[in-house]
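Quick question: what would this complex look like in 3D?
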Amino acid sequence: MIEARSLSKRFQDKKRGEIRAVDNVSFTCQPGQIYGLLGANGAGKTTTLRMLATILEPTDGTAVICGHDVIEEPEKVRANVGFLSTATALYRRLTAQEFVEYFGRLNGLDEPTLKKRVDDIFNRLDMNGFRDRRCDKLSTGMMQKTSIARTLVHDPPVMIFDEPTNGLDIMTARTITAFIRECRDNGKTVIFSTHIMSEVEKLCDVIGIIQSGKLLAEGTLPQLREKCGEHDLEEIFVKVVSPHYTVSEAN
Amino acid sequence: MSFRNVGIVYRKELTEALRDRRTLISTIVVPLFLFPVLSVGFGALAVSLVGKAKEETPKVILRGGEDSPAVVEGLKKLDKIEIVSDGPNWKDQIINKEVRAAVEIPAGFQADLAAQKSDTVNIYDYEGELKSEFATDKVEKYMKDYRDKVVKDRLAAKNLPESVLKPFEVKRENVAPPEKVSGAAFGGIIGYMVILLCMTGAMYPAMDLTAGEKERGTMETILSSPISRMHLVLGKFFLILTAALSTAALSVMSMGVSFSVLGHYTQQAGNANHDAAALVLKLDLKTVLSVFLMALPVAVLFSAALMTIALFAKTYKEAQSYLTPMTFVVIIPAVAAMLPGVELTQKLALVPILNVSLLCKELVTGTYHWNYIAIIFSSTCVYAAVALFLAIKMFQRESVLFRS
């Protein structure tokens, strides 16, 4: 389970002064559920997810993942999380197998368990054809599969996806969305960020709309439709992020 | 503290480094070939160039001397000198290297000698030009011999012994063993090369493992794994240190081999030419190990410092622009140790890099000042620890890791 409690992140910028990238964001994401964080570029999605993955530390507030606080026990949080984004690249000079094994070992797996887990994942994702190929020689699709294998190697209960389909061709993007669905079906807690409406409609059980670091609206798609009086998600989104919309309206 | 994760990171970084051409070149190829090329190659080239310059028969302009046939005759008979006639632009001819020197015999020189009047013979040369200096040396030697002969004749005419002018001899003799003489002459360069190569060895992996990782987008990948940032830094640091030390070890080894080859070569040459024998530089195992031992904390210092600096950069290229000036920061104190008269003192023993460079100079001559060795080793260890501490701190700063 993911529980964000008044999560905030401020940055200091020399020109613009203090920037509130994430401002007092609270939400809960349950196991077996996909929580979609929907927002425009620069809305604060990546910063929120990075805080959940303990890559960044919150300035205020906190989040609890599988009972571990992101500030108090970041390493335990990371051991329970699989994090995938377009920014999480592969080590080019390692082979696909070496890459996945490296992260398995860092997650504390012993060698027999690691071997079994890697074999399972490589069979499941149909990766045996390129397991000994160096990552810089892989196609985009193979790279994405290798990244997925990396997030799965320690079988984490929580999956965090930061715009995972960004810049990918349709076939590779479908592999990713199918994988996200599979994670949910396996009872994992899934949170994923995107600005692509269709992905949210297809995948998410709960949607959170974020703008300027604030979570402006939250609910299932039918709930949001009802609150905003709009059917189309894009219209709902536009309505929510428009300057006249207030948080109290959403609640 | 668990070292398991440090070991995992180290092994992975080692695998990657061994597959990276740039790291392999800077860590293995450069140290293995630089010394042989520099010492044997450059030495042999210098010997052959000087030999060629000596073989040349230089042209020397004779100015005046019409009324002094004996001197002129002697000059013309000089071996490997071609006397040419005077012209109005004789200075330009020397400058343009058409002739190597000019000798000017004053009018009435021989008559003045007979009358026991003092005159001045001028020799004009192109200072700093090797071939001009060879020509000038020959002419000057001839004129001095001629003067000595005149003095001898005058003494003989007055029935005076030669010892009238030379009541006693002044003689200089070297008591330092040959390895100390050559160590003093070349010791500085060894410390300098080891320090510099230690740095170049650390440089590429330091950039690759920090800025390179940011540029390739793997920083976020690794930060999302459960490894603590301290273990991550240490794993990376040990790899950079390995690269620095292998560079240093290979360079010291290759240096030992190069100098023994050079020593053998110059010893052979020394049978014919006495000066060349001074080039012999014997590096025994003890010296090599001592130099390497002193390079150890320096390597730690460089590895941690370079990693910290490179971490600030967003790209490999940016890291290069930060680290290239660092080369000068290292070269200046390392070169300062080679300057004549710069010796180890208690104050200098605390100056990083310079201290090790100076110590290496002493080690090569076989001198072991244990108090200085202790001060230098421990002070460098302190600097290295500070640098490593800074590297760990920097790795915990979001503003450094995610600088935009």
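Answer marked as accepted. Residues 123 and 140 of chain B are 7 Å apart (CA to CA).
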